[in-house]
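### Sample
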Amino acid sequence: MASYLATGCSRGLELALVARLATLPKTEVGTILATARQDHSPQLTEIASTSSGRLQIVKLHVTDESSVKEAVAVVERQLQVKGLDYLVNNAGVSDWSPTGLEGMDNLNEMFNINATGTHLVSRLPATSVQRRQESNNQHVRTAGGN
Ligand SMILES: NC(=O)c1ccc[n+]([C@@H]2O[C@H](COP(=O)([O-])OP(=O)(O)OC[C@H]3O[C@@H](n4cnc5c(N)ncnc54)[C@H](OP(=O)(O)O)[C@@H]3O)[C@@H](O)[C@H]2O)c1
């Protein structure tokens, strides 16, 4: 049974993904570590409370290095030697400027969340897709940050 760490699960695509994962047989999906930067998602809380402990919410702000380290420590405790099978780097933002390039003033902020945040989460040993070379460890990134 595979373990998952998914970022940005408070709403949107990733909330839908972890909701689906939590319905799959335990022989296929084991621990689901669903991260959110705030405790403000009633839907995620509801999924966790009905998952018999399979889905756990981990607080994570992907641009805050100390938050990433704290979350990774939780991941290490939860998975121990078994390691992580799937990392889904979904937390991200997309935006557009109605006035084109001239009005675009948040490029650094977007880059920080979509690219640097993904890097911070991916590079630590507990989440590294290279750590378990003998396994089918997979890294998925949503399109916004690439
Ligand atoms: N929806 C689409 O059609 C589509 C298409 C292509 C690519 N994408 C990309 O896929 C990703 C998810 O899309 P979505 O539609 O599900 O977006 P969404 O509904 O806006 O959800 C974004 C998620 O990212 C989280 N997040 C944002 N900044 C964060 C940060 N600094 N630290 C931790 N979490 C953070 C949000 O948390 P909060 O609730 O705390 O804000 C939320 O959980 C985005 O990167 C988007 O660009 C989406």
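The CA atoms of residues 57 and 124 lie 19 Å apart. This sample (Ketoreductase (KR) domain-containing protein) is used throughout the tutorial notebook.
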